[in-house]
Design goal:
By secondary structure, this protein is mainly β. 2% of the residues lie in helices and 41% in strands. The chain has a single domain, classed as Jelly Rolls (Sandwich), CATH 2.60.120. 30% of the residues are buried. The mean pLDDT is 83.
C-alpha cells in the first residue's frame, strides 16, 4: 500500500521562532536586541526537528523597527548552526532601519542536511558597519522573529 510522504513530494515547510500571536504565531514576544548586551545573543538554544530535513532558507521578519543607534551599526549578523557547528549558514544581515514587517533572508548552507536527532541553534553576533568593522559600542535595537524553510528528506527507515 502506497503512503503519502511529504519528503517524497518536496513540500516546503516554514518553522517560525519568536513570531508573536499578533502576527499569527504562538510566541508571547519576539527576539529583542539591545536588552542585555549589545547584540550578541543565542536566540534559540536547541530546536530538534523531526529529521532528517534539508534547510533551504533562513530569514527574519521585523516585528519592531530596528535602529543602529547613535554609533551607527549597519546590521547584526545572525546564523543557523547544526549541532554547534559554525559552518552551517551564510550570515543573515538583520539590517539597521528595517521597518516593521519587512523580511530579510539568505540561502546557502554549508551543511544543509540536519539528521534525525540533531539540533539547530540560532545566534546573532556583535553589530557591524557595512565595511565589516565591529561596532561594539553601538546600541542596536529592535525586535525580530526568525524562520527556517526546509523540506523533509526521505528516509528508507520510514517505510514499512
Amino acid at each position: 500500500m502506497a503512503r503519502y510522504d511529504d519528503a517524497k513530494f518536496g513540500v516546503i515547510e516554514r518553522r517560525w521562532f519568536g513570531l508573536t500571536q499578533k502576527c499569527g504565531g504562538d510566541a508571547a514576544a519576539g527576539f529583542t536586541f539591545g536588552t542585555t548586551d549589545a547584540t550578541k545573543h543565542i536566540h534559540v538554544t536547541r530546536w530538534y526537528p523531526k529529521g532528517p530535513i534539508k534547510l533551504l532558507k533562513f530569514g527574519y521578519l521585523t516585528l519592531a523597527t530596528t535602529s543602529g543607534g547613535a554609533t551607527v551599526a549597519d546590521y547584526v549578523p545572525a546564523r543557523v548552526q547544526v549541532d554547534g557547528s559554525n559552518e552551517t549558514s551564510s550570515d543573515l544581515e538583520v539590517r539597521n532601519s528595517a521597518t516593521q514587517y519587512s523580511i530579510g533572508s539568505v540561502t546557502g548552507f554549508t551543511n544543509a542536511i540536519v539528521d534525525a536527532g540533531s539540533y539547530i541553534t540560532i545566534k546573532s553576533a556583535t553589530a557591524v558597519s557595512d565595511d565589516g568593522t565591529d561596532a561594539k559600542s553601538a546600541t542596536f535595537s529592535g525586535t525580530v522573529a526568525y524562520f527556517l524553510d526546509y523540506t523533509r528528506e526521505f528516509s528508507t527507515k520510514w517505510d514499512r
